[in-house]
Design goal:
The protein is mainly beta and 760 residues long. It has one domain: TonB-dependent receptor, beta-barrel domain (Maltoporin, Chain A, Beta Barrel), CATH 2.40.170. The protein is built from six helices and 37 strands. The chain has a 22-stranded antiparallel β-barrel. A six-stranded mixed beta sheet has the order 1-2-7-8-5-6, with no helix packed on it. Strands 3-4 form a two-stranded antiparallel ribbon. Strand 31 and strand 32 form a beta hairpin. The longest helix is centred in the N-terminal third of the chain and has 28 residues. It starts with a helix and ends in a 21-residue tail after the last strand.
Length: 760
């Protein structure tokens, strides 16, 4: 292990050391510095006025003021390896959660539980400012996305074919949340408050101080959002082909409050004109309490009632997350840059599920059960990056990344006829320890050749994974070393048209819960069990795109093809007496091929639109994998699916704007069935009283249609589960900003990117 880590470190640092030595020699000899890299040829841009001012300064002239012209922060942008969408003009972002904002981003789909997918693939990595966060990993990711406020996000970057600069995690790609930052001279701040139907409310405050050397910023917010969902599950099951069929009907009602608060504070200090130190502290808590009611009826093959089951109780879930991050950045004379960032994040999850089950047919003793879990998740990340302009408008990036996940999952169960006589339940009591260490190094090199731009990269990773199911005395270790190549090509056809072509190799690692071999009872008829033998899913991803951008019109067409090996997915097996076990298995292969179309533009001077659609072919092939006890045949399944979204933005007056948007998620194929599409709509209106004070009225799920429907359809089992999240709500919100207007930025002027009309 130590030898392999040394190789990773050496690969990460050798290129940076060689370039630093070359730079020192050039400076000592008085050589001309390498030319600063220009924007990629796939992202044409006019030179910023700051460059012209810099030339005058070189000639000995005094510059009184520098004006930086760049893309508006809410504009949509594209580059050779990603698409970036501003969310400031999305009215749902003023009252909703990050999950709500993602529902209006092309390529992204969000289901009723808040689970995110890219082009129909749920294997998505969510980053915050380019770095991993424990908040958005594992089974709690959907809850975090539904809890945190959308107005904390400035942009959403969709990276369906990432370069080697990023971790290869996530076969579908990466969603990078670029958080709002303050770089304005003087003092500034804002206050917002939104009140909604059914007692919903949220609000927040932010403030900042910025001088020539020091920036202080902070924000805090809260959210209260009552939850209510109703799930209906109809199941028909036979023991063997041709046998009589038994059916069950189960209805579940969950309702209760979701409360969330968040706070953040950061400081940036320029110790010299070239060196900046940064630090950030943040914390948030999510508290969800649900009262649960379940009712089940069972029928024999003749249709006679033979089972009646009622269960009532509550589920309490508290998630505390806190993190600290420190960083140092140095910019050298030739605009090359070194940055080092270290972060540590702790998450504590406290969950309790308590219920009483009453079986009236056939008459049976009552059952009381109380399951408590205490999970501790620690994420440590240390990253060093070197970014250097090269001759011929080229650019080199190298870096090293160390990531350590150290988690503990402790579950205790009590069972009895009543709460008073409940004793320890060994079937629900277990301790599982998970540790994963990833040492990674990368290098990318980008260079234009006339109208052609090339971005190539290679990332190498050494992974060590240690699993310890303490209760069952099961220890499982995995180690592997792998390289991940990437290639992106961009060709400028004309000033308003570009072509792109890209390839990347990706990996999807199982969540810790998917590896825990301990069997967990979710309810009387549903059990879950992890599989420590799961292999990572490996994906080869290809994309070809065409982009047209002229004035306020923007078109994008992307064809993609992904082929994956060792896919892991849910497999349902029968345990007897109507109970089913959900576990994970590696399937042999899957394929996704499709076309995504995006169009933004103006219908009239005051009316803009944004439309996108994704049509794809999906195939899942088990390759004859034998899974004992599996219900149905896991052969080859395929389907052609499609979904899309559409939004209109109307600027009624200089101070009044309205927005309507809708989306339909594509149907998603599973090894034993499919997940049906869902439909969501949104309506909003904003009035600006002045430049500092505005009011917003929004309605989400206008037609009350948002729901999920999952089908299992095999020779022995047909199951239809419908979940309807009662998310329809209206909000009235107010926002007030104060402080100094934007002035000079202390950051280097960014290379401007082409803007596209924003209709999110």
């Amino acid at each position: 292990m130590q030898f392999r880590v040394s190789i990773v470190l050496a690969a990460a640092l050798s290129a940076a050391a060689a370039q630093a030595e070359a730079q020192t020699s050039a400076s000592a000899d008085g050589a001309t510095p390498p030319a600063k890299a220009a924007p990629s040829k796939t992202t044409p841009a006019k030179p910023a006025p700051a460059k012209a001012a810099a030339k005058k300064a070189d000639a000995g002239q005094t510059v009184e003021e520098v004006t930086v012209t760049a893309a508006a922060p809410d504009a949509d942008r594209t580059s050779i390896d990603r698409r970036s969408y501003g969310v400031a003009k999305d009215l749902s972002s003023t009252t909703g959660s990050i999950s709500d904002a993602l529902k209006n981003i092309p390529s992204v789909e969000v289901d009723v539980q808040g689970n995110v997918s890219l082009r129909g693939d749920t294997n998505v990595t969510i980053l915050v400012d380019g770095k991993p966060s424990g908040l958005f990993r594992g089974q709690s990711a959907a809850q975090a996305l539904q809890s945190l406020p959308a107005d904390a996000v400035e942009r959403v970057e969709v990276i369906t074919n990432p370069s080697a600069e990023f971790s290869p995690d996530g076969s579908a790609g990466i969603i990078n949340l670029v958080m709002r930052k303050t770089r304005r001279a003087g003092e500034s701040g804002s206050v917002r408050y939104n009140m909604g139907t059914a007692g919903r409310r949220n609000g927040g405050v932010s403030g900042a101080y910025n001088s020539n050397q020091l920036t202080l910023s902070g924000d805090a917010g809260f959210r209260h959002d009552p939850q209510h969902s109703i799930n209906v599950d109809d199941r028909s099951q036979a023991t063997a082909p041709g046998d009589p069929v038994e059916t069950t009907q189960q209805t579940s009602d969950y309702r209760g409050p979701l409360d969330q608060w968040n706070a953040r504070g950061s400081v940036d200090y320029d110790i010299t004109a070239k060196d900046r130190l940064s630090a950030e502290l943040r914390a948030n808590q999510t508290d969800l309490g649900l009262n649960t009611l379940e009712h089940l009826k069972g029928f024999d093959p003749n249709g006679d009632l033979n089972e009646v089951f009622d269960q009532s109780g509550f589920n309490k879930s508290v998630r505390d997350n806190s993190g600290v991050q420190v960083g140092w950045r140095r910019t050298f004379a030739y605009q090359d840059e070194v940055s080092v960032n270290a972060s540590r994040e702790r998450t504590f999850e406290r969950n309790e599920t308590e219920f009483t089950a009453v079986t009236s047919e056939p008459p049976s003793p009552d059952l009381f059960q109380d399951i408590l879990s205490h999970n501790s998740l620690t994420l440590t990340d240390i990253r060093a990056d070197y970014n250097r302009p090269m001759p011929d408008e080229a650019r080199l990036k190298t870096g090293y990344d160390l990531r350590i996940d150290n988690n503990s999952y402790d579950n205790v169960g009590l069972r009895g006829i009543s709460q008073g006589d409940a004793t320890a339940d060994p079937t629900q009591t277990n301790l599982f320890l998970y540790k994963q260490t990833i040492n990674a190094a990368y290098a990318t090199y980008e260079r234009p050749f006339g109208n052609l731009s090339v971005l190539g990269g290679l990332r190498i990773e050494d992974v060590e994974q240690d699993l310890d199911q303490v209760t069952g005395a099961i220890v499982h270790d995995t180690n592997y070393f792998k390289a991940y190549p990437t290639l992106h090509l961009g060709y400028r056809v004309s000033d308003d048209q570009q072509l792109t072509l890209s390839y990347s190799q990706r990996i999807q690692r199982p969540n810790p819960s998917d590896l825990n071999p301990f069997r967990v009872e979710q309810d009387t008829f549903n059990f879950r069990e992890g599989n420590p033998n799961l292999k990572p899913e490996e994906t080869n991803s290809f994309e070809a795109g065409w982009q047209y951008h002229a004035g306020n019109t923007y078109y994008l067409a992307t064809a993609y093809y992904r082929v994956s090996d060792h896919d892991f997915t849910d497999v349902i097996t029968e345990l007897g007496d109507g109970a089913l076990l959900d576990t994970k298995e590696n399937l042999s292969a899957s394929k996704h091929a499709g076309v995504e179309l995006v169009a933004n533009g103006h219908l009239t001077e005051d009316l803009t639109y944004n439309a996108s659609t994704n049509v794809y072919y999906a195939e899942i092939d088990s390759g004859g994998v034998a899974i004992p006890g599996v219900i149905g045949d896991l052969g080859v399944r395929s389907a052609i699916e499609g979904g899309g979204r559409f939004s209109l933005n109307w600027q009624l007056t200089p101070n009044d704007s309205a927005q309507f948007s809708s989306q339909m998620n594509a149907r998603r194929l599973t090894p034993q069935g499919y997940v049906d599409p869902s439909f969501l709509s949104f309506l909003g209106f904003r009035h600006k009283f002045n430049d500092k004070f505005s009011a917003v009225l929004t309605v989400q799920d206008v037609f009350n249609t948002f729901r999920s429907e999952q089908i299992i359809d095999t020779a022995l089992l047909h199951d239809r589960a419908i979940g309807s999240g009662r998310i329809q709500a209206a909000y009235l919100g107010f926002a007030w900003s104060f402080g100094a207007p934007p002035k000079i930025s202390r950051d280097p002027a960014p290379e401007p990117e082409p803007e596209t009309p924003h209709g999110m």
